[in-house]
Amino acid sequence: MEAIDYNHRYHRIDIGRFHRMIEAGVFGDEDRVELIEGEMLDMSPIGAVHIGLTAELNMLFATHLTERAIVTAQGAVVLDDRTEVYPDLLILAPRPDFYRSAKPRPADVALLIEVSDSSLKHDLHTKVPIYARTQVPRVWIFDLPGRRIHTFADPDPTNASYRTTRVLSDGILSITLQDIRIDLDVTDLLRT
Predict the structure, then answer these.
(1) pLDDT tens, residue by residue, 113-156
(2) Which pLDDT score, from 0 to 100, does residue 162 have?
(3) Are strands 109-116 and 138-143 parallel, antiparallel or unpaired?
(4) Whole-angstrom distance, CA of residue 50 vs CA of residue 48
């Protein structure tokens, strides 16, 4: 673990500057960077199981929610003026322009999913509080090494936490989106 030098100030950037850097080509195709509270952070590499689960979830939700929601894999969501993340899956409210005119915001998100190979600590202790503070209504984190799903609902923005949390390693995980109930077999989804 790197030591933090508290004698130096950090230079933080906002979303506008982050977008200008992207448009200027500062990052190459191989760069996977998120903006978390004004700091640019490298995203963890994606393994085969991670890719497969994300694809499976994408297909499952897209099949059930056709013409009722927008399902996007590894798309951006702007949480506030200093944070833009790229979760593995987003279920978004439908919009005629399919978010061409502006990236989604927390109010557009019905469900945000992170798949964690090696980033569980960061997802749970850094991202989840930000999701709660910015009022993302539901978050699921798939912990691949631990073979569990962490679910969060009913954000409490004042305390940067969720009022309803669960951890599942088997059974059925149900969610109702756009008046459609979707049941997921947790054991099947967590297979390797």
Answers:
(1) 999 998 899 999 999 999 999 999 999 999 999 999 999 999 99
(2) 98
(3) parallel
(4) 5
Q: Report strand pairing: 109-116 vs 161-168.
A: unpaired
User: In 3D, which of 115, 75, 74 has the Cα closest to residue 95?
Assistant: 75
Whole-angstrom Cα distance, residue 112 to residue 122? 16
Question: Coil, helix or strand for 144?
Answer: coil
Side-chain-side CA neighbours of 16 within 13 Å: the count stands at 0
Nearest to 186, CA basis, from 169, 161, 166? 169
Enter the tokens of residue 121. 């600590």
156 φ, ψ (degrees, to nearest 5): -115, 90
| Long-range pairs of 19-23 with CB within 8 A, sequence gap ≥ 24 | none
Quote the distance between the C-alpha of residue 55 and its chain's center. Answer: 15
Length of the chain: 192
**Is residue 131 classed as helix, strand or coil in its secondary structure?**
helix
Strand partners, 173: 184
Give me the percent of the chain exceeding a pLDDT of 90.
79
pTM (2 d.p.): 0.91
Residue 107 backbone dihedrals phi, psi, to 5 degrees: -65, -20
The Cα 128–Cα 141 span in angstroms is: 9
